[in-house]
Amino acid sequence: MGRRTAEPVREHAAHRPGRAGLDDLLIRAITDAGAHIGIVYLLADDGRGLVMDVQLGMPEPIAMSWARLRVGDPVPAARAVREDRLVWISGREDLARQFPSAALSLPYHFAVAVRPIRGGGRVWGALMLVWPAGYSHALSREQLDAIDASCSALAGLLQREADRGEPITPGPRPRILNPRPARAADTASQLVALQALNRLPEGYCSLDVEGRIALITAPAADLLSVYASELQGERLGEALPWLDDPLYEDLYRSAVLSGRVTAFTARHPSGRLVTFRLFPGLTGVTVRVTPGALDHDPAERPPPHEIGRPTRIIALHEMLHLATTLARAVTAQEVIDLVADHVMPVYDVQALAILTTEGGRMRVAASRGYSRQAVAELDGQPVIPPAPELLPYDAARPAFFESWADLRETYPEALASDDMKAWAFLPLVTSGRPIGTCILAYDRPHHFEPDERATLTALAGLIAQAFERARLYDVKHQLAQCLQSSLLPHTLPEIPGLELAARYVPATPGMDIGGDFYDLVRLSDTQAAAVIGDVQGHDVTAAALMGQVRTAIRAHATAGASPGEVLAHTNRLLIELAPDRFTSCLYVSIDLERHTACLASAGHLPPLLGRPGEPTRVLDSATGLLLGIDPEAEYPTLDLDLPPGSVLTLYTDGLIEQPGVDLGDAIRDLAARFNPTPDGSLRDLAESLIEPAALEQRADDLAILLLRCAPTGP
Question: What are phi and psi for residue 592, nearest 5 degrees?
Fold first, then answer.
């Protein structure tokens, strides 16, 4: 009903048979499952994002807000793809319970199902269908079968188009479909229907799925004091400014998303009251227009009070959505990526960047949409001063430049980057001090309406808070990592007859520091001790305690204590140092002359042993309590042979733990991937044990220590 930030972009599907087929399959999926809204998301090329390719039935502003998702986002579509399963949300309460941030930004009554589009050994995207809330507490078998069949057909189409060398890829903006009529329109029948409606005392108008008026009766035009021809093809809020109100926009959204009848009363400029009742359906919304106020039906809203021109509810919901999303950002690039995902589609922005200053020069902290050349040109350039005649100039206030001439008037030395034509400069201010500037760039001249300026100014506050948190986190994380790296061994001793390789991978930025550690102690020319462990907690205290545990183990090992005694002594020390912290630890002494080993474990994961010509063994022997629990705890030992060529692998839980995966199954899977060869590189073997995805996104750090007894010389 209200204004839109941009017109929807449509691709002529007739020229792309594959894309036309995709549209047909989406409409069929909606019809077969009895839904009233449908969306097809496609997986981005990097596999980390979901991009809305086509949708039917959802108001355009809402669709734009959800046009790009991250696979890791806490929203139904991302979870369905991430966990490779159907996700069903029965209503608003269920949505709030499972996805509180999504419920906050979509406060409407609806049910939703999302299923991954999987085929040919890969996930192509996701199909999302929406029903009115209360339609059903669970999907029927027929609906489940319809969803499965639709996803299978979509996957088959996407696979065929990819095999033909014409893969279907999402465009810069989602395509919005209109439902196709079952038969061709009959002009005579339409005229008869309009004449029949004109005989009724109340007025009627029909809105398409985008909120435009497709038909309006004469009584409705009379009640609204307009000519019917003036409204044809227009949105009510655009043609009738007195209906351009956030409350009415919110009720329209509610009707479309929830599939429920909604109603409101508005005051005509003449002073009389007019009531609108919205009846939603698959092809749009029918509006009944009557004079007077509502009859106070409890399911309908009473007449609103005089509320002036508050911030639009549509913008408020977008801000809530972005605010809850930005709360998860912990790096500058994450901040700009999340802002870009939510802002670029809604406000038709082509590029964003966050600039800071250092020593009088500009630094590009993060960017999206700008070319590498543009970033390189900006980064390191002296700060560009405003025109002298504008002084005193307040750089802490947002500035909007609708053309290149406007920008050059304020900044005569401005650089033309990527041929952009309009800009919004949003200062990032926290605690009264500027910390940077967010730049939004447009590839054509752009007029900034007052509402848009207000919304973007509010947006700057959200970005500033998120960016400041990210900067503080970066400093904290770097300090913690420096502490941890200083406590881990920079080099391991070289011992004749013993080959070794170690690998440590910290948690992904955004997670706290871990307490994993490893070490190798030279006991004599033919004896060594290997140790690996994990201190409870993910903070600086855990890192510092890890250093103390390593020192204690070294001291007791070099004093000649047996493996069980080393852990027992360290256990008592840990209880004195940090009675509320626990540590898992595995200690192994190796005799290179006799080719034997003795190990003791304090609740640590079992090591792997690979012997020449034998399958990998999981040394799952009895273990003692974690260090730091019982000062009287004892630690049994296990003796084993290590013939030449044997490879012993020690590791921490960060290597194998995954949500929903049994620990025993994860250890067996690791053993299956552990295939040492006599002449193979231990470093390469260590790398092969780390899943590639673990290097991109980790909730915990990991450590691996591999040791191989070399063949004895002649």
Answer: -75, -20
pLDDT of residue 392: 61
C-alpha torsion angle, residues 157, 161, 164, 168 (rounded to 10): -170
Q: Are 634 and 571 in contact (CB under 8 A)?
A: no
pLDDT at 586: 95
Alpha-carbon separation of residue 679 from 99, 501, 630, 646 (angstroms): 51, 14, 44, 11
The whole-number average pLDDT for the span 299-318 is 42
Distance CA 189, CA 196 (A): 11
Stretch 128-149: mean pLDDT: 86
More confident residue, 454 or 337: 337
Provide the residue type at 369 as one letter. G
Helix (H, G, I), strand (E, B) or coil at 542: helix
Angle at 625 between CA 624 and CA 628, to 5 degrees: 135
CB 252 within 8 A of CB 264: no
Interaxial angle between packed helices 450-487 and 540-558, expressed in degrees from 0 to 180 and rounded to the nearest 10: 10
CA distance 384 to 704: 50
Whether the predicted pLDDT of 138 surpasses 70: yes
* pLDDT at residue 567, as a whole number: 95
Indicate the SS3 state at residue 336.
Answer: helix
Q: What are phi and psi of 66, to 5 degrees?
A: -115, 25
Nearest-angstrom CA–CA distance, 344 and 68: 10
The pair of structure tokens assigned to 2 is 């209200």
Left if phi > 0, otherwise alpha if psi is -120 to 50, otherwise beta: which for 284?
left
Distance CA 549, CA 628 (A): 11
* Beta-bridge partners for 125: 42, 117
Burial class (CB in 10 A: 0-12, 13-18, 19+), 189: exposed
C-beta atoms surrounding 493 within 10 Å: 12
| Cα–Cα dist 662/664, whole Å | 6
**pLDDT confidence bin for 347, thresholds 50/70/90:** confident
Q: In this predicted model, which residue has the larger pLDDT, 535 or 106?
A: 535
Q: What was the pLDDT predicted at 46? A: 79
CB 11 within 8 A of CB 19: yes
**Residue 343 confidence (pLDDT):** 79
637 touches 700 (CB < 8 A): no
What lies within 8 Å, CB to CB, of 79 at 6+ separation is 87, 99, 114
Mean pLDDT of the chain: 82
Radius of gyration over alpha carbons of the chain, in Å?
32
C-alpha distances in Å from residue 47, one per residue of 38, 125, 600 = 22, 10, 43
Task: Please check whether residue 90 is in contact with residue 138, taking contact to mean a CB–CB distance below 8 angstroms.
Answer: yes
Compute CA distances 478 → 111, 326, 474, 475, whole Å: 44, 21, 6, 5
The tokens for 560 are 């000649």
| Consecutive H or E run containing 69 | strand 68-70
Q: What pTM was estimated for this model as a whole?
A: 0.50
Which residues have C-beta within 8 Å of that of residue 310, sequence separation ≥ 6?
246
For strands 175-176 and 49-56, give the pairing. parallel
Strands 213-216 and 203-207: antiparallel
- Ranking 5-19, 487-501, 519-533, 651-665 by mean pLDDT, the lowest is 5-19
